[in-house]
Specification:
By secondary structure, the chain is an all-alpha fold. Helix content is about 75%, strand content about 0%. It is built from three helices and no strands.
């Protein structure tokens, strides 16, 4: 190990990729269990995805509509993470 390498850094390679996928799946599972807003938006996204194929006149329009649905889910996950951090560091009751 070189002098500049941190012992806390993860190793690279395929094992790191497998671990990252596992952590991502665990995080999505936690969001499904604990975040009502995420569940609601996921249900709406599942309903609206077929509508995107019906409404979109070109492939680009269809993919843009689906990208908007995915973006809503990503922003909800980011919002949930910010709320979790705020809850962890704040003593105020929300």
């Amino acid at each position: 190990m070189s002098a500049h390498t941190s012992p806390f850094k993860s190793k690279g390679g395929f094992h790191r990729l497998i671990s990252a996928v596992r952590y991502s799946v665990q995080g999505l599972g936690a969001a499904l269990r604990h975040e009502a807003a995420f569940r609601q938006e996921l249900v709406l996204a599942l309903i609206l995805t077929p509508a995107a194929f019906w409404v979109g006149q070109t492939g680009l329009q269809t993919m843009s509509l689906i990208a908007c649905l995915v973006l809503v889910l990503v922003v909800e996950l980011l919002n949930s993470s910010v709320e979790a951090v705020a809850d962890a560091v704040s003593l105020e009751k929300n």
